[in-house]
Write a structure and sequence with these properties.
Radius of gyration: 23 Å
Shape: rod-shaped
Largest sheet: none
């Protein structure tokens, strides 16, 4: 956030007012929440896909699924 405020004041040469600071804090909080949920979601998807490949005998990577399909 400090880099954003410094860029806004030094490069854009705009004054920082309390209304701009507090409204941007709310936006940063929303974006932070979205990024945290996105990271959690991708982690869950990757774990699910890996678990699916690990448990399914026909698609098991240890049995050479990709070799049989001509990928490797």
């Amino acid at each position: 956030m400090l880099v954003t405020y410094a860029t806004y004041t030094l490069i854009a040469k705009q004054p920082l007012t309390p209304s701009k600071i507090f409204s941007s804090l709310a936006v940063f909080d929303i974006v932070r929440g979205v990024l945290m949920r996105m990271a959690w979601f991708y982690s869950e998807v990757i774990q699910g896909v890996c678990g699916f490949f690990w448990k399914t005998p026909g698609l098991n990577l240890r049995n050479g699924f990709f070799k049989r399909q001509g990928f490797a």
